[in-house]
Amino acid sequence: MIRAATLLAAGLAFGGAAAQVGGDLKPPHVARVAFEPLEGDGTQIAPGAAFRIAVDVMNAAGADAPAGLTLFGWLRRSDPANLPCTEAAESFFRTGRLPVGAVFLNDPLVAMLTEDDALHLVDPEFSLATANILGAVKLASRPGAVAVDPDLRRLLVPLPEEGRVVAVDTAARQSVLAEGLTRPEAVLPVADGGVIALDAGRLVRRPEGPVPDIEARALVPVPGSSEALALGARAITLFDRDSGAVRLHWDVQASAALPLHGPDGTTGLAAAVGSELLLRYLDAPDAAPLRIPLAAPARALVASRDGRFIFAHDPAGEPVSVVDLARSRLVQSTGAGATAVSEIVAGDSAAYLMLADQSRVGVLDLVSLARSGHAEFREVPLGAARDAALDGAGYLASLWPDSGVIAVHRESRQGYRLQDFAAMGNAPAMSAIPLRGGVPRAIHVLDRSFREGPTGSFRTVTTLPGPGRWELVATTGLGQLSFCAELPVADPGEATPQAGRLLAEQADGALQLRVVDGAGAPLELRGVLTFAALSGVWRDRAPFRSDATGRARAIYELPPGDPVVLTLEAPGAPSFVPLLVEAD
């Protein structure tokens, strides 16, 4: 079931009612938010249980939804001392920081699997912080091929030695999805929250459901689709994960395969057979496959995000073949000489090639490839070369929906952020993410962002880290389009005492403060007042004392420039809502 509340984006916190806009003015946009628990039939959200957040932004003055918006959001504990929504949003955009304990709903997380079978979740935006590990879980045994469930924002981890499949969410909580299997080596997510596992060469589904009765040795998901590809020793099968229906079965002995995809979905299959790339299209299933010669035999295939280019290579050596499907031919053979390319990630405008000795990452400009069929092999220095080449992939991953990739140097335990503009020259990486907690063995990127489907309609999935009252803060950063919405939690805990307030009055150009309790009654007290610029580093403290009317016995002069946040601490008094003052 879905609990929904219709809200007006006026930058105020409210509990299920419409925000009020002063005077006769009406807000330009209306936002509707809904919370949907993904387990059970109730409407209450329990700590640790996944739930979906749906935000629909509508144009109050017309039928068309506003286009081009980016929605930022986070969950924070409900507290009368919280900044109001518009001020909380302004603080976020000015400082890039959130309150302690907040759950951010944007940007990707990096999941690092270590040699001692631990899984660490790292926030790449905290790369300069002393502790960027958001959570960690120790796995009971060595995992198989870890997969990402993009819809439920979690990692799927097969444990072959135990016959189990577990899920790890963005808070590093572990749950069992399947057990009693023989030896699950790989796994794919299913729309109902279950999984399809590659178990001892066969496909099984948990909970029980339809799957193709085929032999397989590898599973490949189709990006942005419910389809998947199963690669066997003698055949390739394209099937629908949700229904189990087979779309195409191709009897071919391929060393590697991948789905061909375009703007309208999956269009066919590509298979590496010896020194050829074979293409078979869904609209001509009985036709002979198109054969494209490669520069060398390939054991791995990678497609660009738009599906135009295929990169075929052998991680043990040999050059990389670049095939342009728009031209239906090999357009370039590239590489780093005698050093093998261990893995490739291709994005929107650049392809990244990890060298097996980890000394460098090659970068190819896809725009140049599209225009002329050739791109310079640029090199980004990564670190000291390894004595022994990497024996597998897993050290290069796309940061989608952000641009670029993260490239991990195993020996230095650093993850370097490479951007697409690296294709323009041999520039070093500009930032690095410390990967603490062990020796990296593989990385995966887990996107936790609000995703826009239809224009103005945003969705994400998350969990609450603990009991208590929580609220959603959402903002686009434009005008007054910010709002708060209280979550329907199953365990609200004790009610938080109503906070006091600081009130500002002008007194001959200076600032006169008055303090009242939650009911508006004046308070006579002593405490300490803290001043902090909303941007910049200015900060100051001053003693505070109020009389029987609640007015401060001193007046304060603020430095001109940025807005200043005032906070008051007083022994024996309730907490006070921070006050934002615009300095003249």
TrEMBL record:
Signal peptide span: 1-19
Alphabetic keyword roster: Signal
Species in which this protein is naturally found: Roseivivax marinus
Protein name, entry field: Uncharacterized protein
